[in-house]
């Protein structure tokens, strides 16, 4: 059936709304070409409908040109962006050739797919709302393609009717959606684990270069989650997640040295407190190391514990993985061999002369008393330095510029300059990179560590052992006490107006809740929620079972509701007759709702001649009970019911 | 169809049954390939209703009426309606009889058991009304005196499609006087061939022998009224009526009288088919001729009344 103008307009509108969810991340040529094609087609259909569907000599070059253009833009057809551009292009082409109801159905179905693809790019509140809104016209249009029950042959279905039944349908779907959301077994990775920019999110890496942490600190995506066996997390100031120890500084970048991969010698580490058992679920990093809490007491399988107490594995972590770890917060780490001591004192030659000078001065002033040197440095930081995520640019002698000129920065600057300063003063020091803090999720009873919790601090050889010194804490104690969010909040200088700040905070809260409740509702949270109902450690099978049961109940309720009226009207005879009709339908001859018994019998007998005699008897019984008597008698109805059950449609009729 | 209903034999006396079947067969032998329409003509007769045949000139409207007249042993009158036909021309006039010194009523052609009113929409509304009134009341009143029409009184009217020149369309309220409105349509290829090759219809009709008399018809009418309409069937009829009243394309749905007519026609249809109970198929067979001319469209749709009535049948489920 050809689309009428009303349906055509609705189709174009619905698909255009779907496309708006993608306009932001499409290449400009795609936006322009898409709008041009849709517009041209709309004008043609509006003013020259007699031209009919788009001719093949227009469609073919466009269809062939699309993948070529995508390859020209991205170099490939695979991946999230090229893939979605390809899909969107196909949708636009499908729309442009839609002339019949069948085309429109295909276009709308595909539009639904494209719409969901918008969620692969962004899953924030605005985008989700946008997608949810665009779903409505899509379904309205789908509804408008179907004839209304009361005008089987023609007549325009009106917008109001389509909208009303769509909204009713979507509303009715909400309970099932909630059930699916809560009980659908979660995959460790999102189903659409599309090869996107997420893969490039390496988190803390094995080098520390200027600007690297600033990028991480504005990234709110989760790095890993931790569940403690005791159920309670350590204090915020104790939550140091050690990633790697960086030993070598070349004037610009901190890197690991070969000696750092040496194994831990027996006796170098003494544990002074009870170990804390916990489970750490790490998002894929494509790197090889873990982020244990402070000092791990053992290495998990396929990981080695190095002399600097880091856990390094044999292959990159490319999927979400869970590790059972144990750590201590009080310990004594010794074992500074001369070679390691030398490594912890090395400085690049010819860089940062003023820093060298200050170090030498302190060395002389405090007579090599490491403790006092550290105190002097921390006092200097505390008194003179400020914390900012947007520090001024540093020159060649970066540490000099930072220490004596700009005096503003964040953990990277503080830890780097502090280590340099200590080394200049003759105190062995090194940089540790990892995460600090974490958000305690009380509902899920787990600690969420985000990329924005990335941190760098120092370890200094004091009193014959390595001790953690965090110069950032000296500058901005709330970074350690309250977390990166609190530390970074002062950065919003351009939002000076209080009302704007309030609004932004509220919006942030809404987004935060959206993230917490919807986007990050993952396996752990699911379990946390289910635990409230006495389900401990629900596994995949149990979830599938619960999901199946819950959705079955809902569907049965819906079915009951839909059939309630019919059920009230039907009796034994009706049930038996409908049973017979269903069995005949299964044998290949379905009864139309408006078909009377004798017309139906005639049709059935043509299809199943071998059962004709038996069927004629059955139908005669039914007709007699149903129509030859004012009301069917109960005994006859039961007898008919039994006869129907005995009846075999004799299988095939071929 | 009859083979499946052997469980409940029709309570019709065998002779009556034979007469009815013969009558139907006889009309069918004249009007070729129109079994459904012939059936409906008998439905109209047995349901004590009147029949309106609407179609183009020359498709056999009059032939059908003549065949009916020849088959039924009834007094027959034919009135050709023209634009100058007056009411008194059909119902009769009172004329002063000098020798008796009083007015004497001279019955018009309406005083017959079977009246063929040909091309009624060529007459003026005044004359149409006179006919339709007589049909409704079974009597005519002239000069304050009522004169009963004979029984049975069966009018077969024909009319040309309303868009032909020189017609006065019958108002909806008067169309309601006709139980059924049917159309004959062109014959099928085979029927037409037989028509062209066989003898003249007039000659065939002249040779017909009547096989049903007034008493038979009276008995059949009583039997038809006694045909069982079960609760399920009444449900179905009510479903159809309710749909005509709720449908967007229909301004005025079926009246209660139309509902009664539908059920009565269905009963007659069942009787002719040899059953003493009504099936949904009977209702479906008579629904369009009963309902289509009684629907007033709202103008929301593009379908005419017949197409719409056919579509309505597809929207009410038989349980």
From TrEMBL, chain A:
The keyword Membrane applies. Keywords: Membrane, Transmembrane, Transmembrane helix. Residues 403-473 form the Transglutaminase-like domain. InterPro entries: Bact_TGase-like, Papain-like_cys_pep_sf, TgpA-like_C, TgpA_N, Transglutaminase-like. The chain crosses the membrane at residues 64-92, 104-121, 127-145, 166-184, 543-563. It comes from the Bacteria. It holds the Pfam family Transglut_core. Signal peptide: none annotated. The keyword Transmembrane applies. SMART domains: TGc. This is Uncharacterized protein DUF4129. It comes from Tahibacter aquaticus.
TrEMBL record, chain B:
Keywords: ATP-binding, Nucleotide-binding. It holds the Pfam family AAA_3. One of its GO terms (molecular function) is ATP hydrolysis activity. The keyword Nucleotidyltransferase does not apply. The keyword Protein transport does not apply. Residues 50-180 form the ATPase AAA-3 domain. InterPro entries: ATPase_AAA-3, CbbQ/NirQ/NorQ/GpvN, ChlI/MoxR_AAA_lid, P-loop_NTPase. Residues 244-298 form the ChlI/MoxR AAA lid domain. Belongs to the MoxR family. This is MoxR-like ATPase.
